[in-house]
Design brief:
single chain; alpha+beta; globular
């Protein structure tokens, strides 16, 4: 299936926010991370078990495969960023974040993942055994 161009509809929201961008462009926002990988981002809302905060919203960054068939090869996700009495209020609160703030969160997650990654590759460890 080939892509098609849909002109942005700026009457649907503020394209400088993550929720507004998706509404205006009819697709999720995408970023290139400092790791050189491409990421799409979605706002996700889940039920929580927190009293007075029944719904929590967070961001899910899907990392696209660089080599081979197009597809997702991994993901990063934030903790809950906003809460609401309904799914829509939690989604709207996360959706009000600016694209710059969302990109900063992605970069923080990339740094945290890199810090937790083993410094040796599996093939180096196997060779040394």
């Amino acid at each position: 299936m080939s892509g098609r161009f849909l002109p942005p509809d700026h009457s649907r929201g503020d394209a400088n926010t993550i929720g507004g961008y998706a509404a205006v462009h009819a697709r999720p926002a995408a970023f290139e991370g400092s790791d050189g990988m491409s990421y799409s981002v979605e706002i996700i809302v889940d039920e929580t078990e927190i009293v007075g905060r029944p719904y929590g919203g967070y961001l899910l960054f899907m990392r696209w495969r660089r080599v081979g068939a197009q597809g997702i090869e991994g993901h990063l996700e934030t903790d809950y960023l906003a809460y609401g009495a309904t799914e829509d209020t939690a989604r709207d609160a996360v959706g009000a974040m600016t694209l710059n703030d969302v990109k900063a969160l992605l970069e923080r997650l990339i740094r945290e993942q890199a810090a937790n990654r083993p410094s040796r590759r599996w093939w180096d460890a196997m060779r040394d055994e």
